[in-house]
Structure formats: C-alpha cells, structure tokens
Amino acid sequence: MAGERAVIWVARNVTERKHLENELLEASQTDPLTHAANWRRLIEVLQSHFAAFRRYHHPMALIMFDLDHFKPLSDHWSLRNQSSLM
C-alpha cells in the first residue's frame, strides 16, 4: 500500500550473552585460584577511591602486603586450603 507507514520490531533474548560477558569480566579481574582482585581490578578500585577522596576530601589509606617465600606456606597448607590461606 503506497504511503502507509510500517513498524518492524525485532526482539532477541540476550540473557545468555550477558551472563557470558559477566563471566568474562570476572575472569579478567580476579585470580582464578584465590578469586582475589588482580592488578587491573586493584588499579580500577584505587582510581575510583582516589577520585572520591579528591572530590569529597574523605580520609584515605592504603596497605599492601608483599608475601615473600609464599610457596613453603602454600605447600604446607595444601592446594585445597590455598584460597583460605590467601
């Protein structure tokens, strides 16, 4: 019909895709063994907190630990308990 308007609606369920995207994001930001945040995630969180510190002048502190010779502890507590040890 000449001159008539038409609307085409396309819908798609993206639930599975969003689930996979969330899994990929989680994998890119955490250590697979301990599920602790990795360096990339740490930097993102620190930048966010530093921006809040600068904006609102909230107090801020950072404590970091570097565990030397962790392997003997890890071997002693076994692979099963490493996540708890971390």
TrEMBL record:
One of its GO terms (cellular component) is plasma membrane. Transmembrane segments: none annotated. Residues 58-86 form the GGDEF domain. GO terms for molecular function: diguanylate cyclase activity. GO terms for biological process: cell adhesion involved in single-species biofilm formation; negative regulation of bacterial-type flagellum-dependent cell motility. SUPFAM superfamilies: Nucleotide cyclase. Gene3D superfamilies: 3.30.70.270. This is diguanylate cyclase. It comes from Marinobacterium halophilum. It catalyses: 2 GTP = 3',3'-c-di-GMP + 2 diphosphate. Pfam families: GGDEF. Its EC number is 2.7.7.65. It comes from the Bacteria.
